[in-house]
Design a protein that fits this description.
Blueprint lengths: L1 E14 L2 E6 L2 E7 L6 H13 L3 E2 L5 E3 L1 H4 L2 E6 L21 H18 L3 E3 L6 E16 L4
Parallel strand pairs: 3-6, 6-7
Antiparallel strand pairs: 1-2, 1-3, 1-8, 4-5
Helix pairs in contact: 1-3
Length: about 150
């Protein structure tokens, strides 16, 4: 499982001209679900996302989490994060979780996040989404977790 975090001053997702999610300052999280991922892996990774210190403290150091700063989280499924790009000129998606399983796990991830933090907004699984954001910094990190 991969989570690409972007610290943002604002971010939004639209599908067919309809806004599905919007946050002000916080984290835009692109989530890639791989074969073998499950809720235990998701909870471990998402807990880390919520506690990851990427926001400035009073001294200007990245020492505060999204929870500490009271920021929002916008969760967007992105199967292309699961691509194997080691060879050739075309990505392979054989390591991605199959769509039905991925949709269920994404729903579980969203429910878990909403139970732990607010505000949490979301994209729409499997949709052609337009994501707009203002990356603050820019600050971007890739977090990964796998089954033990």
């Amino acid at each position: 499982m991969k989570a690409l975090l972007q610290r943002v001053t604002e971010a939004a997702v639209t599908v067919d001209g309809r806004e599905t999610g919007r946050i002000g300052p916080g984290l835009l999280v692109f989530l890639g679900l791989d074969r073998g991922d499950g809720l235990a892996v998701a909870e471990r990774l998402l807990s880390r996302v919520l506690r990851y210190r990427v926001f400035a403290d009073d001294a200007g150091r990245m020492n505060r989490s999204v929870v500490d700063s009271g920021g929002g989280v916008l969760l967007v499924s992105q199967f292309t994060l699961s691509a194997d790009t080691d060879r050739g000129l075309r990505p392979s998606f054989s390591s991605a979780l199959p769509p039905a399983e991925a949709e269920a796990l994404y729903g579980d991830c969203l429910a878990w996040l909403r139970a732990q933090h607010a505000p949490v907004a979301a994209g729409e699984f499997g949709a052609d989404m337009q994501v707009s954001l203002v990356n603050d910094g820019p600050v971007t990190f890739l977090l990964e977790a796998s089954a033990p």
